[in-house]
Amino acid sequence: MKALKYKDSIDKWLENYFISKDGYEKTIYDSMSYSLNIGGKRIRPLLFLYTYSLFKDEIDDVLDIAGAIEMIHTYSLIHDDLPAMDDDDLRRGMPTNHIKYGDAIAILAGDGLLNEAMNIMFQYCIESESQLAVKACSYISKSAGAAGMIAGQIVDIESEGKKISIEKLKYMHSKKTGALINAAIVSAAILAGADSTEIEKLSEYGTKLGLAFQIKDDVLDVIGDESKLGKKTLSDENKNKSNFITEYGLEECEKQCIKLTEECLELLKSLGKDTEALEDITKYLLYRES
Amino acid sequence: MKALKYKDSIDKWLENYFISKDGYEKTIYDSMSYSLNIGGKRIRPLLFLYTYSLFKDEIDDVLDIAGAIEMIHTYSLIHDDLPAMDDDDLRRGMPTNHIKYGDAIAILAGDGLLNEAMNIMFQYCIESESQLAVKACSYISKSAGAAGMIAGQIVDIESEGKKISIEKLKYMHSKKTGALINAAIVSAAILAGADSTEIEKLSEYGTKLGLAFQIKDDVLDVIGDESKLGKKTLSDENKNKSNFITEYGLEECEKQCIKLTEECLELLKSLGKDTEALEDITKYLLYRES
């Protein structure tokens, strides 16, 4: 698949990032590196890089920002998995960060990854001396914050054991999962100097893709294969959480995934550019088994 | 005291920041606002503002950055107080964030404040269109990260119940407390366009002040008044932690505080500017009872 061309670059960048970090605080680097490198589809950095490549060729120049986005994603997983939150022991078939390092270090590893992502982005802004870079990084930072991912997580926590409205469910996921997926795409377009119509179309694409991604996640939580997912299924049911399946039923969810995917592909085509890689990712997310 | 002239401005800025935030995620704003507004000496934003005012008059223009620095400080306190970390119930005489809101929300409130600080800094960089702003914000961001405050916290956690070398103890505090105090001062100088000699002197001042601050904290932990401190004394002894008192003894610590304070005042004078407010803060930190 063309879309995976850049996955090796991202994986290597992430693998090497904390290498040769030593000293008194070695543990924090080990624990951050552990969660960053236990696998993962790298969807967000791939979306970032392929969106950027619609407008510019120099992908290596922006690998740092792609890596920063994956760090933000990883920090959120580490904190979500904590006993005080979702209390999950397994992630990608491996012990979660707090199972391996303990709760205190897992909290700090999450903090450290979020902070490191910001360090990387500020450093990029210094070196590029570009106002577009500042705008792109600001967009990413906002998507992760209390009006973005954290808003989604707080609604998720407060909704446990309760029936919530479909409107609130959609709101939750648009923030928890959607915000960073959308930001990966939109920030790349901003950074690459896309015009406002292009940014708007890509933002709509990102929003629909984020929703399709979450519905598919809920579907896999019911009918997925634990060994492929690397985590337990039926986690929402066990925690008595509302999700798209409890609201719409399995069949309707699968239909909606297909419909959203089609709309995503239409939006990409309307850009009039070579969007093959993004189309591949979009379809891959629909047909994935993990 | 001249140095407190700007405290009201900071307090008001912090009080108003999350006001009128509502919606599904109201709890996260309430909990962030709670910890941000249960008092505090506002040392770091004051150091930032008074350093800036050595070079520029328009303090209102940079209140946002001062507030962002206090948010980073507050996030670190919320996470440090968690049961998995220092497990403290009281902070400034009030219930800590997790006692009031529960562990999950306290973790997210910390995450949210760190993230909001970054949002504010990126927004400031967009609006000011200034490379000095990007450099100043980058300096603040790095001071909070895994090579800064988080390094100090990880060494602190790993040292619990162990005797550690004086070198490691100094390293720990230079990161845990020193990094953000130094950054508040240095970032203000960078932002205000100070020259490299001035920045160097102020950086040395910040490093010595941070060390004096921490030694004084250790002294107060032994001989302080709980009602004035708003937290329990002898916390290090009860947690079997090394500190400056266990290493040097009380008398030597008090001597070192005075010596460092004198060196700080000398450094300020060597700038040849009206440093009265910074001198006041420096002396206040030496003589404080909380």
TrEMBL record, chains A, B:
Its cofactor is Mg(2+). Its EC number is 2.5.1.10. One of its GO terms (cellular component) is cytoplasm. Pfam families: polyprenyl_synt (PF00348). The keyword DNA-binding does not apply. It is an enzyme of class 2 (transferase). It catalyses: isopentenyl diphosphate + (2E)-geranyl diphosphate = (2E,6E)-farnesyl diphosphate + diphosphate. Gene3D superfamilies: Farnesyl Diphosphate Synthase. Keywords: Isoprene biosynthesis, Magnesium, Metal-binding, Transferase. One of its GO terms (biological process) is terpenoid biosynthetic process. Coiled coil: none annotated. Belongs to the FPP/GGPP synthase family. This is Farnesyl diphosphate synthase. It comes from Clostridium cellulovorans (strain ATCC 35296 / DSM 3052 / OCM 3 / 743B). The lineage of its organism: Bacteria, Bacillati, Bacillota, Clostridia, Eubacteriales.
